[in-house]
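Deliverable D5.2: sample structural annotation.
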Amino acid sequence: MPNTEIKLIATDLDGTLLRDDHLTLSPANREALTSAAKAGIEVVIATGRSLAAVAPQVLELPFLHYFITCNGSITTDREGHILRAAPLPLDTTLEILEHLTTMGDFAVQLYADQKMYLSRTDWEHRDFIHLPAFHLKTLFPSEESIVDDLMERARQPGTHLEKINMPYLTPEQKAEIKVWLAQRYGDRVRAVSTMECNLELTDRDGSKGAALGALCDSLHIPTEQAMALGDADNDIGMLQTAGIGVAMSNAIPEVQAAADWITLSNEEDGVAHAIHSLLGI
């Protein structure tokens, strides 16, 4: 019998819904989400990516109405209209960007106005600063993403500053940045990882868990009637907020510990397996 209690499914993309190439939506996962939508369940994407960088195969799904992006710092409808925002303050963003330039030779990305930006210097040295291959393939859709200066881009009037990302750090760099952030900002800046080597910074209210709770409130759906699926550090709050938190078998141990149920890996159609097993759809 189908589980008729669940009214909303929120799923992460990378390491969860998509294959390891960060592009492919499997037929099984597509069919499972489609069946859920046909059963009246609201399907929501919750990702660290910007809306502009959501995989085309996912954007093509006609039943998707809401997107939680940039780790929860912004929630939009599919046309990009902002429903909830928790941006980084400009002064905080500028101070962090300035400090990061003194800490070593690593790439820094700025997410602003639902796009990701990289400095021209980092772009020209992309072969030497370990930018992940999928970033180069999927997250830089146009020359507009490459700017002369990230701080100058952040200062543009009316800019919504969603996230700062360092896609490749050594363990020592990552630890040093987290210590500095905690000393300088306390809990005002959230630092989470979506990969072992990266670090992503948002406002403290820019979390997937907070965004999921707010979206459920706006849709008059109790969070107990939501199911969330994820694999990484930035998914923990979302899994704890939802009535059913599902971790992928490829998830880090902390995510699995926070989950109510563990499904198959993203390479084994774990999202579809969870929907079939837990919802009977």
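Annotation notes: The longest strand covers residues 161-166. The longest helix spans residues 171-185.
The annotation will be released with the project's public dataset once the embargo ends.
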